[in-house]
Amino acid sequence: MNKDQVVGKIKDLAGEAQAGVGKAINSPSQIAKGKALEAEGEIQKKAGDVKETLKDAADAAKKRL
């Protein structure tokens, strides 16, 4: 697990919480901000997944040499 995966997950969870609070207080702007933070977290998490996959592939290639 790398930094992008961890930070992305944190942003995703924070965005969910913010959107939930926005729904509870009926605040469309808070809902939108929460959804945006969720999306940002998902993107960062996916970037971390790609980095991890590339690292694993590089490690496997080194073992074959």
Automatic annotation (TrEMBL):
Domain CsbD-like stretches: 4-56
Pfam families the record matches: CsbD
Signal peptide: none
Transmembrane segments: none
Organism domain of life: Bacteria
Entry's family note: Belongs to the UPF0337 (CsbD) family.
Name the record gives this protein: CsbD family protein
Organism: Comamonas sediminis
